[in-house]
Amino acid sequence: MGVATTVRAVNGLTARWADASEGGTVFSAAGVWPLLAHLADGAEGTARAELADALGLPVGQAASAARELLAAMGAMRGLDTALGLWTKRTLELRAEWEAGLPADAHGVLTGDPVADGRALDAWAVKRTGGLIDRMPVALTEDTQMVLASALAMRTQWLNPFHEVELETAYEPWVTEPRLGLWRSSAVLDRVGVADTADGHVTELKVLGSNALDVHLLLGEEGMKPGQVLRAGVDILAGRCAVVPGPRLSYGNVGPGLRVEKVRRTRPEPPSLEVTTVAYSMNASHDLLKLHELFGLTTARDASRGHFPGISAFPLAVGSAEQNTMAKFGALGFEAAAVTEFGAVAAGMPDLRYVTTRISAAFDRPFGFLAVHRHTRLVLTAGWVMDPLPFPVDDWDDE
Predict the structure, then answer these.
(1) For position 267, which CATH number holds?
(2) Apex CA 4: angle with CA 324 and CA 196, to 5°?
(3) What is the pTM for the complete model shown?
(4) Looking at residue 281, what DSSP letter applies?
(5) 80 and 379 Cβ atoms separated by less than 8 Å
(6) Residues 269 and 366 reside in one and the same domain
């Protein structure tokens, strides 16, 4: 089984998580999937079957697929990943299961929740380069084991944006000036319109310098965030028909997208002008509230153990959480996730030349996927509802 199969499974979890999401948020299925795979490898009975459904792969292949995925992610420029395991000294692990984890992953829980919490927070800070400052786990004296992953990505745009004050008709964003981003390019195929079962979606690819890209997704008004983000995953998988920029007809051809003839003072190539917004967002997710999505319904039942392949000691999932952040600016993008499972223009010019201009405006709530260009693995996904405010100089308030 290759990485491509695992990527499809991880992206499938991204789409299902998007369907279950509400409001402005950011999340990383790529941070959850390897942990579910290792849990499934040590599970039995109903818990094992439920985890297999969530993974989208047979459990017998899950652990090796997780190792292969983490190795592939570790080789991606601009992406740092890590997997960590902490156990009480008295918890004896199955040698076969522990051997499937990275050699340097295993740490010790002292039984002091405060001291252990500080150690785990330090791990989160180190593994995300400071993008996330704490581990999303509430340790107790009953916590026997913590299995965690960290993911941090950074990229710089090949074609940076200019910061501007956003002009929009979307009323919630009009009440406070928002920090808009604008740029022009001669590469028209960065934008396209997808025809999906739920409506048309405009996709814009913002390319990073290290093959880590962000795809902005604007759906028809009335489409739900899950429908728009799922469309983005379907586009990656080639399941949606997409009309690229150079083949678009004139007029309003998609959500926020217009193609028109414009006059210029000199011969110029066609252009793609993009307006979007800067955003910085953080989110925390209690995965047990979505236990069916993640295959944890039975595994959270603490009346008996579900993971004999991990330890002879009876274990259940007592916590499952993720802290995530994303920041999109004029020069680049950065995102991180830590996931844990706890057991327990002037003048009148001479306009004689005509060219084509495509205008793409992401000036109302939209979705995004942070994607590794070559594998098409979605690293983080989110929905933007609250862009950054436009900075106002102090003298403007006097």
Answers:
(1) 2.30.39.10
(2) 75
(3) 0.93
(4) E
(5) no
(6) yes
